């Protein structure tokens, strides 16, 4: 059976890494807060799409709330990984 799945050996060779749960909740909360989307809709987004929406919301916030460089607001995407 494994011989037919040669490409998967590369993927699992280093072990399966999951997206940190705390980061997932931060992104979900961020999108839900600004767009008022229900949990199921936000959970249905793929990782790349969820990150893209967070980036777009952050850019909107930056343009609506300009601040000086010293006290510049951070984007949700600037958060440090939890792991």
What does this structure look like?
- By secondary structure, the protein is an all-alpha fold.
- 54% of the residues lie in helices and 0% in strands.
- The chain contains 4 helices and no strands.
- The longest helix has 18 residues, at 47-64.
- The protein is globular.
- The two termini are 34 Å apart.
- The model has no long low-confidence stretch (mean pLDDT 77).
Core attributes:
single chain; 83 residues; mainly alpha; 4 helices
Summarize this structure briefly.
This protein has 83 residues and is mostly helical.
The topology string of helices and strands comes to HHHH
**Secondary structure: number of strands:** 0
The gyration radius over C-alpha positions equals 17 Å
Gross geometry: globular
Average pLDDT reading: 77
Low-pLDDT residue intervals, each spanning 5 or more residues? none
- Kindly report how far apart the N and C termini lie: 34 Å
Helices and strands in order, then pairings?
Elements: H1 6-12, H2 21-35, H3 39-43, H4 47-64
